[in-house]
Amino acid sequence: MPQPNKQSILTPISPPHHHKIPRNLNEIVQLCSVRCLRDESLGRQLDEITANESGSLDDFKCLFDDHLSKTDDFDATTREYEYGSKLNTIVRQLGIAENFEWLINKIFHSKEAMINLVVNSYRHQNGFDKFVLMESPNGWKLRLHIWWSDSFISFQESIHDHSWMFASNVLAGRIYSDIFQEVEPEADQAERFREHQYTSVSRSRENHSNQFQINYVKDTWLRATESSVMINAGQSYVFPQTMLHRILQPTFDEIHQNSNCGAVTLVLTAPRSRYTSRLINTCNTDYEEEQTVIRMTEFEIRRKLQYVCQYLKDRSDIPLKSPM
């Protein structure tokens, strides 16, 4: 399984002249792969923390807060490029197997970090396990997403955007994504969808559940601009918050033909710019107005994260099956 090389991540390279993140996912992946979207100073600071025996989660949080605090000009083109470089640098540095294991061990040995991890981890309705490894009152979150090869659910993920910019590093396996653009009804290849507004409602520590509302807004016409963009282990990308996309789920036939269809991604989200997001699906699909998700136990979380750490260290090509 391909792994990012620590030295290559910090190799100096001249940034492109335009200093702009494109709105094309293939171009974004290529931009990240040639080491343009990197912040070398931040990368060296991350290395210093993980190489120091006394390095701590608090050191990480202070460093991330210094670099990821929301600013008034966050939406400016230049600021977006600089911010994307920071997000991408962090997920790539922490995606190196020994750095990732260092992070997980620090979390396991922190009572406060484990409490937060248990409260914020759950099985996502889109078919993956979601673990919030770290978060800050300033708004950023470091998350791990795992699609187990033996626990895929058979449905198509909804088209959606996000209320924050994010960077994602594929640590194992591969993911596929479709990209969409909103168009006029009479445009070529326009397809009609039902658009909903997704809003988080509440978070309860007592019943370990998270509630959110999904309300119909309007009919929307979209056109696919990129289909089945493949992002492999060792590749990363930065995703502007206004882009519409969906991660493709494998079919039962694909799972039968290829048992190693799992994936692991490390995702760093910026502070949110709004409290709602767009959720779009076909016209014959609707949602319950309020949904609840059930979280995982501490024992289950530890088993799964320990398994993934070993899986990444071994660079295993065996199927990524859930240990639980």
Description:
This protein has 324 residues and is α+β, with helices and mostly antiparallel strands. It has a single domain, classed as Jelly Rolls (Sandwich), CATH 2.60.120. It is 31% helix and 31% strand. It has 9 helices and 12 strands. Strands 1, 2, 3, 4, 5, 6, 7, 8, 9, 10, 11 and 12 form a 12-stranded antiparallel beta sheet that branches. Strand 1 and strand 2 form a beta hairpin. Helix 3 packs antiparallel against helix 4 and helix 6 runs antiparallel to helix 9. It starts with 5 loop residues before the first helix and ends in a 10-residue tail after the last helix. The N terminus is likely disordered.
Features:
324 residues; alpha+beta; Jelly Rolls; twelve-stranded antiparallel β-sheet; 9 helices; 12 strands; 31% helix; 31% strand; globular
What CATH architecture would you give? Sandwich
Order of helices and strands: HHHHHHHEEEEEEEEEHEEEH
> What's the oligomerization state?
single chain
Estimated helix fraction: 25-40%
The residue ranges in which pLDDT falls below 50 over 5 or more consecutive positions are 1-17, 203-209
Biggest sheet details? 12 strands, antiparallel
**CATH homologous superfamily name?**
Jelly Rolls
Instruction: Indicate the proportion of strand residues.
Output: 25-35%
The number of domains: 1
CATH topology category name: Jelly Rolls
Structural class from helices and strands?
alpha+beta
What general form does the structure show?
globular
What is the gyration radius calculated from CA atoms? 19 Å
- Cα-to-Cα separation, first versus last residue: 23 Å
Please report the total strand number as a whole number. Answer: 12
CATH C-level class: Mainly Beta
Mean pLDDT across all amino acids: 84
- Enumerate how many helices there are, as a single number: 9
